[in-house]
Amino acid sequence: MAGKSKSTKQSKQTLSGSELIVLELQEIHSAESQLARVLPRLAKAVESDTLREMIEERLVEGETLIADVESALEELEASPGRKKNVAAEGLINDAREHVQEIAAGPALDAVLIGAIQKTEHYCIAAWGTVRALAQANGLKDAVKAMERALKEGKAYDERLTQLAEKEVTPALLALESQDASDSDELEDDVPSGARRSRKSNSERRVQS
């Protein structure tokens, strides 16, 4: 009879307000650092020049935010730490996989807009949390940094939506329409006798 394994009960931490802010800032720092590594790859993969410019713009905004987060952590006598933000990692990996699996063109652009927006929504939630905590603890510089990030992030998200609606989705639909038209033209180029023979063969296969 196998011996009973001893149950190990991990003790839970009790965090102060400032410690919670540090934890949240470290999560933001990790998310932005991971984004900074993948955004250049996304910029190279997209077809839309506007989308490429927006991705590059987000990279610059992220660099500013990382500097602000590091300043806030220094004020709290803390460091960014090495713990990886696994929630952001999952969202970023989705975008990376899309680049590997989908050919360049409107379809990839559309999917990447969605992936970037999902990540941005996560970031907006994190920034809002830190802003509220910083306000409660009187950390004016951190509040200012998060308010700027929130303003830029929400505007960026809206611009991505507009880009999808006005440029990328219409381009995708136009491509699908062109593909359908090309298919019809190829069908028209087939001699009528060959089409009848092909149809007859198809009907015989169904009957059998």
What does this structure look like?
The protein has one domain: Up-down Bundle (Ferritin). The chain has 6 helices and no strands. It has helices at 17-45, 49-75, 86-101, 106-136, 140-189, 192-207.
What's the short version?
The chain has 208 residues and is an all-alpha fold. The protein has one domain (17-183): Ferritin, core subunit, four-helix bundle (Ferritin, Up-down Bundle). It has helices spanning 17-45, 49-75, 86-101, 106-136, 140-189, 192-207.
What order do the helices and strands come in, and which of them pair?
Elements: H1 17-45, H2 49-75, H3 86-101, H4 106-136, H5 140-189, H6 192-207
Helix pairs in contact: 1-2, 1-3, 1-4, 2-5, 3-4, 4-5
CATH class: Mainly Alpha
Order of helices and strands: HHHHHH
* Overall helicity: over 70%
The count of domains is 1
Portion of residues in beta strands equals under 5%
The CATH architecture classification is Up-down Bundle
Largest sheet: none
Mean pLDDT: 87
Number of strands: 0
State Rg.
26 Å
Q: What would the principal axes of the Cα set say about the shape?
A: elongated
Given as residue ranges, the uncertain stretches (5+ residues, pLDDT < 50) are 202-206
Which key phrases capture this entry?
mainly alpha, 208 residues, 81% helix, Ferritin
